[in-house]
Design a protein that fits this description.
2 domains, disordered C terminus, mainly alpha, 13 helices
Length: 396
């Protein structure tokens, strides 16, 4: 079956709007957090920022990737036209619901925000059911967990004024989807080697990978519940520390010394490195009792790992979901490194609050520049999603 043209695929509008929104939410949050502006919302700056990163920006990216991949998995035409426009409108309504949160009931705001992931699950799930495609249900499971995490986020916000467990559950779900499973990184390295005929093949998946992933998920589960005193803090810290070292060893197994020098392989490896870094920072927070390291771990996982790997997936999905180029341009590499630098600056701000006024604007500027550049690079191609007719895939 021929893959759908990238300009006709569902990735176009969602990746474009997702990139623009990633830049916009940071452009609003930084001056709001620093007290320079005061938007009227029923959310604190940190709560709005966390919600829109986890439940606004990332679901848009998942939607773009999913709607582009589904035609290749099912052989059905890609989503387009009015239905695609309606799905995009539902996502926008969720964002507007938070903007108008002072004039709406908390339950109304929550329901408006939940409409998009529920609709996305329904659209993709219908395709999988019609084609009896059960192999790719993992991403729908992640979306279902995100729906639960988002509902928990809104309930905690209404009940306690802040969300801890909903935020952490969403972070864990997104880490599982983007990078903890390791599917993206080995796939990119393997594709490079296949295209270039590298003499050092990628280390195949083994029981070690499965054990490491399971241990990472177990440690994340403990991290989600750590404020409930489920385990002793020292034991929690030991588990997180061991997971951090295990994930570092897993990264080393991908043969960094023998890896190709291609930028398309090096960049996602940098993003992946933020995962063990986050585990080590969270471990130190539990062992030392210094909550600043918890904030540092959270931003290592969100900005560094999830944001960085999301950008990797975006840049590889936007040109087309099949036979992707095995090289990255210098500009594309630059925006990935900007996100990594932004994450480092934000981690440093968490650990050194005295330099907040310098480091947070620096992190925000790098993040905004990266995603605006992506939008400029791929906006023209994505803008053709309404103008071109959609035809069913035909046999080769």
């Amino acid at each position: 079956m021929k893959p759908p043209s990238p300009s006709k695929a569902g990735c176009g509008p969602f990746l474009l709007f997702g990139a623009l929104y990633a830049a916009a939410l940071v452009a609003v949050w930084v001056p709001w957090f620093l007290g320079l502006i005061g938007p009227e919302m029923a959310f604190s700056p940190s709560s709005w920022h966390a919600h829109e990163f986890l439940f606004g920006f990332m679901p848009a990216i998942i939607g773009g990737v999913l709607l582009t991949a589904v035609p290749n998995w099912t052989g059905h035409p890609p989503l387009a036209g009015r239905l695609l426009t309606m799905l995009l409108a539902v996502w926008i309504v969720g964002r507007l619901g938070l903007v108008g949160s002072t004039a709406l009931e908390p339950l109304t705001v929550a329901l408006l925000a939940l409409l998009f992931p529920v609709a996305l699950i329904a659209v993709a799930g219908r395709e999988f059911i019609l084609t009896r495609n059960g192999r790719n249900l993992t991403i729908l499971a992640v979306l279902a967990v995100l729906v639960g995490a988002q509902g928990l986020f809104h309930w905690e916000l209404w009940r306690f004024g802040r969300s801890a467990h909903g935020t952490r559950l969403a972070v864990a779900a997104l880490l599982t989807w983007t990078v903890l499973g390791g599917g993206v990184m080995p796939g990119i390295a393997g594709g490079w080697r296949k295209a270039r005929g590298a003499s050092h093949p990628q280390v195949p998946s083994s029981r070690f990978d499965g054990v490491t992933m399971g241990f990472g998920l177990l440690s994340l589960g403990i991290w989600i519940l750590q404020d409930d005193d489920v385990l002793n803090e020292r034991l929690t810290g030991a588990l997180l520390l061991a997971a951090g070292f295990a994930l570092t060893a897993r990264l080393a197994r991908w043969r960094p010394r023998h890896a190709p020098s291609g930028r398309s392989v090096t960049v996602p490896r940098v993003s992946y490195a933020f995962i063990p870094a986050g585990f080590l920072l969270a471990a130190w927070a539990s062992l030392s009792g210094d909550t600043a390291f918890n904030a540092a771990a959270l931003h290592a996982w969100t900005m560094g790992a999830i944001g960085g790997m999301a950008l990797t997936v975006m840049t590889r999905t936007a040109p087309g979901h099949t036979k992707l180029a095995s090289t990255a341009s210098r500009l594309t590499t630059g925006i990935h490194l900007a996100v990594a630098a932004a994450a480092c600056a934000r981690i440093a701000a968490a650990l050194d609050p005295q330099r907040t006024m310098l480091l947070i604007p620096m992190a925000g500027a790098l993040w905004i520049a990266a995603f605006l550049t992506f939008a400029l690079l791929h906006g023209r191609r994505s803008g053709r999603w309404m103008s071109e007719p959609v035809r069913p895939a035909t046999p080769d």
